[in-house]
């Protein structure tokens, strides 16, 4: 059967604002079309956990074939302590259509710097923090000049620490990544995925992550993207509230009466900016609703 031509992703949203990050095994090219036609803001071709060791070379070959035929994608690469990391970077350095890389199990800023040195200049790096060591070092990792965003590998983090999956157990790592991102001037972190097939679990976990500062989420399946986009976008209620604040305080803040108005004005400007941004790109792909 002839290979399908690469799909040009229909979203051209700045990845700083990308909400849904869809992981796709790079050794499964039959899944590429569905992924790139989905509602996901960003697609990540995975060379790491989704690909067994014996198929790593096949995955790199499929990634190379995809990008050299015009396709573009983010790539999750193996962690810097493995031989696969070296081989991943050798393959990626020869490609032009790489949006950026997600470095698995990032534990030090030095690993980020070493990765950046092997990539084409300016390649964006997302540090996936998945261990206790990585979480402790998150502040210094975020300060690396090569870092674009932080992401939370929640499943591996729980395995490493023995923590449960309750919102309370996960509140500290999520909050810590948010604080580290903010201190470094980065966009909000990308939260780990929902493994459950239940829509209600996806929605609850996305709402919890958003309440702790996450502005993106990793998705395991294409159908998760729309719900994640919806929850991580301003609602109609948010937009209405923002308009009322602007009417009261003025778009330029000319009618601010005291310091307590400034947080409201800052939130208003963010809501208005995101609402315009997502609407300009036709996002989200399903109607928003008032909570």
UniProtKB/TrEMBL annotation:
Q: Which cofactor does it need?
A: Mg(2+)
UniProt entry tagged with the keyword Magnesium: yes
- Spell out the molecular function terms from Gene Ontology: lyase activity
Which keywords accompany this UniProt record?
Lyase, Magnesium, Metal-binding
Q: Is Lyase included in the keywords of this UniProt record?
A: yes
| Span of domain HpcH/HpaI aldolase/citrate lyase | 19-186
Highest taxon, organism lineage: Bacteria
Q: What InterPro entries does its record include?
A: Aldolase/citrate-lyase_domain (IPR005000), Citrate_lyase_beta/mcl1/mcl2 (IPR011206), Pyrv/PenolPyrv_kinase-like_dom (IPR015813), Pyrv_kinase-like_dom_sf (IPR040442)
**Pfam families registered for this protein in UniProt:** HpcH_HpaI
Q: What is this protein called?
A: CoA ester lyase
- Record the organism: Prescottella soli
């Amino acid at each position: 059967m002839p290979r399908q031509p690469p799909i040009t992703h229909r979203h051209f949203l700045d990845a700083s604002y990308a909400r849904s990050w869809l992981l796709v095994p790079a050794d499964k090219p039959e899944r590429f079309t569905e992924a790139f036609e989905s509602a996901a803001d960003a697609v990540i071709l995975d060379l790491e956990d989704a690909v067994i060791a014996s198929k790593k070379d096949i995955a790199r070959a499929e990634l190379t074939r995809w990008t050299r035929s015009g396709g573009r994608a983010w790539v999750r690469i193996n962690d810097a302590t493995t031989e696969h990391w070296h081989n991943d970077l050798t393959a990626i350095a020869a490609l032009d259509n790489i949006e950026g890389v997600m470095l698995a199990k990032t534990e030090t800023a030095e690993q980020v710097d070493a990765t950046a040195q092997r990539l084409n200049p300016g390649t964006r790096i997302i540090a996936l923090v998945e261990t206790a060591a990585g979480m402790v070092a998150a502040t210094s990792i975020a300060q690396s000049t090569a870092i674009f965003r932080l992401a939370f590998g929640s499943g591996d983090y729980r395995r490493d620490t023995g923590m449960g999956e309750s919102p309370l157990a996960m509140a500290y790592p999520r909050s810590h990544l948010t604080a580290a991102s903010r201190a470094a001037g980065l966009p909000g972190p990308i939260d780990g995925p929902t493994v459950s097939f239940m829509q209600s679990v996806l929605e609850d976990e996305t709402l919890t992550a958003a309440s702790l500062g996450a502005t993106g989420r990793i998705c395991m399946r294409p159908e998760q993207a729309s719900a994640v986009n919806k929850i991580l976008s301003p609602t109609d209620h948010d937009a209405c509230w923002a308009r009322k604040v602007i009417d009261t305080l003025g778009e330029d803040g000319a009618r601010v009466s005291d310091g307590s108005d400034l947080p409201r004005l800052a939130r208003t400007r963010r809501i208005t900016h995101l609402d315009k941004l997502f609407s300009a790109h036709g996002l989200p792909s399903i109607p928003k609703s008032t909570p």
